[in-house]
Design brief:
Strand content: 15-25%
Distance between the termini: 92 Å
Number of domains: 2
Number of helices: 14
CATH architecture of the largest domain: 3-Layer(aba) Sandwich
Order of helices and strands: HEHHEHEHEEEHEHEHEEHHHHEHH
CATH class of the largest domain: Alpha Beta
């Protein structure tokens, strides 16, 4: 064989090998280098009224539902308005929050910032007063100094509306009742020191004011609502996140429903988990007697109790928190994903009314 023929044979052999290699599909695609897992940014409070969030985080139920490809990034807040500010800033995806901050966020963003996607908690709020403040009736609140967790939060609106419907004015509107928005731990200290006469607060703070500071319940908020049910905490989602990540929202809701059911089926274990989480976040667990008493005022439900939110919105509007024109809240709920989850689990659907 001549030199030219030998070269041609070698080139043909190389070409055959190259074509064979190209025709073999790889058995597994290589992972993209440097790929980061997705993140779901969750917010909630270290309060008993946020027990579904505390339990879901502690048990890993949320993380498990989201999957190994997604990381849950949980952050805690002390009051609703500051949480809404973080959501506005694009720092949060899903959150547990009270009704009035959610309403404010929806109205201020013209319906573009958030949607309510599930309920979480009913009850668990009270107006507690010092016995030596001599408050036996609404008229006795004139000239008193009171506290709420934050201006415009759910308990703040409840207190201001109670004063309003009883013909009393707050100091900022020329009246004699002073309301001091204060973080809940500081409310307890001020109450113990006699620097405030009462406070409208969520659990466990209402029970702590009673057991640790000798307070008396002036109003159990359950007494002001039909059948004692009213929304204290529900789940909201950033609308951009809902629009772009409905699958992740659905997975979260599956875990949320499972968590609510777990709390109902395992009250003792759930209480222990809640208290362990409160200790982890705040460094101090609740005394057992506080935990047990406070729990009697709460009910946990994925039903958003929508009708009670609209009443809260009416109150906030009358107080001037929602602008000059009555807001249209018909689009605030997005319950289709929750109802799909409930249907799959054989549970009754809930309504946005």
């Amino acid at each position: 064989m001549g030199r030219t023929a030998r070269c041609t044979a070698v080139l043909l052999s190389l070409l055959v090998l190259l074509l064979a290699a190209c025709s073999q599909a790889p058995t597994e695609a290589p992972a993209a280098a440097g790929t980061e897992p997705g993140i779901v940014r969750l917010a909630y409070f270290p309060n008993l009224t946020h027990a579904p969030a505390l339990v879901g985080v502690a048990k890993g139920t949320f993380q498990e539902a989201l999957g190994t490809n997604v990381r849950l990034n949980a952050t805690t807040f002390n009051a609703g308005p500051s949480l809404i500010e973080a959501l506005f800033a694009g720092e949060l995806d899903i959150a547990y929050i009270g009704p009035n901050p959610a309403i404010n966020g929806y109205v201020k963003s013209n319906g573009e910032a958030l949607r309510i996607i599930a309920g979480a908690t009913s009850g668990g709020a009270a107006f507690v007063v010092r016995p030596d403040a001599q408050i036996a009736a609404a008229a006795d609140l004139g000239g008193k100094k009171l506290a709420t967790p934050q201006l415009g939060n759910t308990q703040d609106v409840a207190l201001r509306y109670y004063l309003h419907e009883n013909g009393l004015q707050t100091a900022d509107k020329g009246g004699t009742v002073e309301i001091i928005p204060t973080q809940s731990p500081d409310i307890l200290t001020l109450f113990q020191q006699g620097q405030i006469d009462g406070a409208w607060v969520p659990e466990p703070w209402a029970t702590r004011l009673i057991q640790e500071a000798g307070g008396q319940v002036f109003i159990d908020e359950r007494d002001k609502w039909p059948e004692g049910q009213f929304v204290t905490t529900h789940v909201i989602v950033s609308k951009p996140f809902l629009d772009t990540q409905p699958d992740l929202v659905t997975r979260f809701l599956q875990a949320h429903v499972d968590t609510v059911q777990y709390i109902g089926d395992n009250p003792a274990e759930a209480k222990s988990l809640v208290n362990a989480e409160i200790e982890r976040i705040t460094t101090k667990p609740l005394p057992r007697e506080v935990l047990d008493q406070a729990y009697t005022t709460l009910a946990f439900t994925y039903d958003p109790l929508a009708s009670t939110l609209f009443v809260s919105a009416e109150h906030a509007f009358e107080l001037g928190f929602l602008g000059a024109e009555k807001p249209d809240l018909r689009g605030i709920y997005a319950l289709d994903l929750l109802n799909s989850v409930l249907t799959e689990k054989g549970l009754a659907s809930v309504a946005a009314q």
